[in-house]
Design goal:
single chain, mainly alpha, four-stranded antiparallel beta sheet, 15 helices, globular
């Protein structure tokens, strides 16, 4: 009798699924600006009705059981603590090296949630003689007693890929925000918030490093004092503009150590390039190309471009060799470029060299980058957005987080 009842239940589910099959037309997701992953609420609502009906027959899946019991907040708290620890131990050199100063992002948190979820789910699969068949039936066979009827079609597809990947490779496919765990916990990640969190973290990191540098060398930054750090794009020498000549000398002495200048220049450039910043310091394409030309010539040949003879739209070495010829040879030797990209890149570098030579080295502005500094930390110059901690930009994007990985110091 029990088998007959179960058979009738399964037949009822199949009728329900096949009756609706002709209505199930996949609609493409419309791209939305500044959205990482957003659910189609109408689609989910219609599927929710199907889920409710079929779940009465199949019962709750192990997927949903995990989703309902996972402590999402604890994952973000762990990320905040890790980021906080990094800032507290930022060190006394300017760097954003992933090894020295790792940043735990919201995406990494979500990836860890999915890793833990599917690590747990495959424990059941491994108890069966054929784990792969068990997983396949779980997500695609509605006649199977352990069919995941309480997931949407898309969630079943995501679940299948992740569970199979965990079984075969020991990791999930990726941090897909359409997994059921994020629906059940109403977790969404907005592009602007993710991006703003990363920007703010690296600004706080640089502030912390400067604070350590000055504290270690007993340099007091006055509360009312304002400073401007200017970084040369070729030597990466940092010069300090301030009223106190003694402080200027001390700051320049401690800042111009190691690769501080190179990394500060890169940081300023990175902040200037962020969405909405519209940094004027990097807006002159000729200056950008001049910087790139100098950098690549020095990297490949050891020559400083401005010290070579400028003539006929190029530069010549002391023995009369066209530097573009040397560049082509060196790029073709460079193992970092795949064969098909070598010619394109050598042409690009030669194009920058020719452009600068035709204008004349002295006629193209150098891309010296500047940033303000005070006891409150760094503040951006020449751009529409200042990424200071506590700024209007900060409040707009970071004060209303559902969950935050952002640490402060």
């Amino acid at each position: 009798m029990t088998d007959i009842i179960r058979l009738k239940q399964q037949e009822a589910v199949l009728r329900l699924l096949f009756q609706n099959a002709h209505k199930d037309v996949e609609k493409p997701l419309h791209a939305q600006k500044n959205v990482v992953a957003k659910r189609d609420c109408l689609t989910i609502s219609s599927e929710a009705m199907e889920i409710q009906k079929t779940a009465q027959i199949y019962g709750q899946s192990e997927n949903i059981k995990f989703d309902q019991n996972v402590d999402i907040a604890s994952y973000f708290e762990a990320a905040r603590e890790a980021n906080q620890k990094t800032l507290e131990n930022a060190g006394d050199e300017i760097t954003r090296s992933g090894q020295k100063c790792p940043y735990v992002s919201s995406g990494e948190v979500c990836y860890q949630i999915l890793t833990d979820k599917y690590s747990k789910l495959i424990e059941e699969a491994k108890k069966h003689d054929d784990p792969e068949l068990y997983i396949e039936r779980k997500y695609y066979d509605p006649t199977c007693p352990w069919f995941t009827s309480d997931l949407t079609r898309e969630e079943r597809s995501i679940g299948y890929r992740n569970e199979m990947s965990m079984l075969k490779r020991g990791k999930v496919v990726g941090a897909n925000m359409l997994d059921s765990v994020f629906r059940i916990n109403s977790l969404t990640l907005d592009y602007d918030e993710i991006n703003a969190s990363q920007i703010s973290y690296y600004r706080q990191l640089c502030d912390a490093q400067l604070n350590f540098i000055f504290s270690k060398n007993k340099i007091q930054v006055g509360e009312a004092s304002q400073y401007i750090f200017r970084v040369d794009p070729y030597s990466y020498h940092i010069s300090v503009d301030c009223e106190d000549a003694a402080i200027k000398e001390k700051m320049e002495s401690v800042l111009n150590q190691g690769e501080n200048g190179k990394h500060l220049w890169q940081q300023i450039k990175w902040f200037s390039e962020q969405d909405g910043a519209h940094g004027t310091q990097i807006s002159n394409k000729l200056s950008v190309h001049k910087t790139w030309a100098y950098r690549e010539v020095y990297r490949y040949t050891g020559y400083q471009l401005h010290e070579l003879k400028e003539e006929n739209g190029t530069y010549y070495t002391e023995d009369g060799t066209d530097i573009k010829t040397v560049i082509r040879e060196e790029v073709w030797k460079d193992p970092i470029f795949p064969y098909e990209a070598k010619e394109d890149y050598s042409q690009a570098v030669c194009g920058w060299i020719q452009e600068v030579a035709e204008w004349g080295w002295k006629n193209v502005p150098d891309m010296v980058l500047s940033i303000g500094y005070s006891s409150a930390g760094l503040h951006d110059l020449g751009q529409d957005i200042s990424f200071d901690y506590g700024s209007e930009w900060y409040k707009q994007y970071l004060d209303n987080y559902q969950y935050s990985v952002l640490a402060t110091y």
